[in-house]
Amino acid sequence: PERSIEMQRAINSDIMMVLDQCVPSLSDRRRTEEAMHLTHRWAERSLAARGDSLQAMFGIVQGGIYPDLRRESAARITELPFEGFALGGLAVGEEKSVRDEIVAYAAELLPVDRPRYLMGVGTPIDLLESVARGIDMFDCIIPTAYAEQGVCF
Question: From 140's CA, which of 79, 90, 100, 153 has a CA 20 to 30 Å away?
């Protein structure tokens, strides 16, 4: 995590992201929970590595497809002094309907006075549906990958 923050500081990114461990969303509960706790430890280390930087930093909520783990992760990450919060660990194997349910559930756990960012989701319908569920920001390779094939949304 320290090296990741060092690199993000060096390139003067507008928003630094903490390092997280993203496991396939259909991973068993034990593996998902272990990854979540590792992400929490890395979030704390990332904050410490931030030093006096004025760059924004976002914490990442993990927990796979398990609502109780999402709730635990959101509670832990939102108690830390981040400028925004991301939902990670989605769009990595689960059904769209499951992802939509988790996004709706987890977005409600995040503060409304700071940006809420959904990682790795990028089709037009997913963006619109996620905005309706409370998400503010996105990133995804889908638009670029489609554009390389001559497709435009």
Answer: 79
